[in-house]
Amino acid sequence: MASKAQEKPLSLRILLTVFLVIWLIAAAFPFMWTLWGSFKVELDFFSIANWRDALTGPRTEFTYGHPFTGAGYAGAWIQEEFWRSVINTFIVCFFVVCISLTLGTLGGYALSRSGHNYVFWLLIAALMFRALPPITLVSGYLPPFFEWNIWGYLPTAIIVLVAINQPFTLWMLHSFFQKIPKELDESAKVDGCTQFQAFRHVIIPVMWPGVITTGLFSFLLAYNDFAVTAMLLSESNRTMIPAVAAFLGTTQTEGNVMFAVAAVVSATVPLFIMVMFFQRQIVSGLTAGAVKG
Amino acid sequence: MKHKTFFWFFLPTAMAMLIFIAAPLVSVIMQSLFLPHEAVLIQVENCGPFGCTQQTSIDQEATQALRDAAPMGRFAGLEVYFDRGHLATAEVAEAWRTRESLGAFFGELGNLPFYRAMAFTLTYTFTVTPLLIALGFFIAVGVNSVTRQIRGFLIFFSLLPMIVTPLVGSLILFWMIDARGILGNLLQYLANDPDLSLKASTPLMWISLIVYGIWSSAPFAFVVFYAGLQTVPQDTLESAQIDGATRWQQIRYVLVPHLMPLITFVALIQLMDNFRVFEPIIGFSAQAHATSLSWIIFNDLGGETRQLSAAATTSVLTVLCVAILLTPVLVRTWRDFKGKA
Lengths: 293, 341
Known about the structure:
The complex is a heterodimer. By secondary structure, chain A is mostly helical. Chain A is 78% helix and 0% strand. Chain A contains 14 helices and no strands. In chain A, helix 7 packs across helix 9. Chain A starts with 9 loop residues before the first helix and ends with a helix. Chain B has 15 helices and four strands. The two termini of chain B are 18 Å apart.
């Protein structure tokens, strides 16, 4: 690989390194900075006098006797009951992922194994649904949900998120299923399996990588959603992201910005851990639809 | 697969999509054509020891009866579409007739909520998309040229701005560019203006939102291009080198043409995604300077008075715009399908 001809001149190497370092700082520094600052008091993190205060924390030390304080976290988690939102988020994400994958694997499998013409039209319909911004559907949800008295509850939001998730899940699983040779389920059927048995006992066991990748993206969609959950959940059933948005409205005026900062850091941690463990799957999922085309 | 088997496999997901995507879409279109009933008013005469007074009050029973008779509201046709909050045809025509210059006309348009939102949404979409593609491409080329050991590390940190919740990511940046935050301080120092505040100026707010947009979407382009770079035919690259192509020429004439289908793919996806820009406006509290169609819908639906028909109308208009942006994707999918068949 590294032949003499491909060796880069020094100037180019320096330029490249500088560029990558700048990008690395741009990508990672905001998170580090906010994490560090979340353990300070507001006057340090938003310092009028000197920006270095956010690093050293003189007022935090003055108030709490130590340059680090968990006051923002205590305020957000206990006083403002952010823990409720955290639990709600994980309930919503868990069920959205499970239901999405169940419906999606069945549908995606059927799409990949049927050669009929309508498969194409179904995929096109899914593509159109995928392009719809979810917020445009919300005004269609509200009147019936109020009418039937199901507005504000977690199961309602879960079902809606599952449905919004379906087009994307279908496309992704469809492309993963197509990589599995058809001979596999055909031979299972020759051995006397029904289509469902072939799917359940032969295809699913070899599909795990694809299912996990799709599950990660379903999780991200449910976790990151703001428009739908903010509109469809009542205050006591809020998930994390609408709760963070609510902090901005109420607590910022009361001088508790640090609650919001602490909540934002808390909401980032699970994503950070997820990328750490599933980096490979995320990358393969992002490129699944792209590289072929 | 037999039709019947296919039907049973596909039924659950089809039901979910029909009930929670297709039906609400129809309902949104219906709502946009109706207006809520106006309350029925009655005149009541109250006579007391000091004479009689006329009082106007709402006839609750009659209003309720009207609502029960036609629960959708009264039919308004396209009235809502053309009112001041949406396409504002009357106001636009008026502004055009009384215009002094083209600039003044566009200034007038900027006061109408729909056109104000459109101006920002389109500016955002068409500046963010090319810039994020360029940035993503250079990161991909850069990461591809470093040793294998640190690539994983680079990819990990590069993914963060994209994976993180849009609202959370925009808040993190917003706190840093705050006049008392680190970047805000730095800008004040660089501009030598201690009163500089991004929050106070419309152009600076637009630039911040666009920077956020590039920051959060460039990783997607990077990952896709990086995967594409792994499949570049080495022979072509080598023969270009033998023919004496410079590094820049290799990028321009070998890498870019090889990645062209991916660049189109990313551009099409990102045009649609950037068009729905919404969370950064909330995170940056930028509604005074920049609004988008999604933000208008959210704003109409939130609060005590849920203005359903106004929100529904903006939703339909948004869907129409997305449909226009989606057409090239559909054409491409259609061609792929034709190619295979």
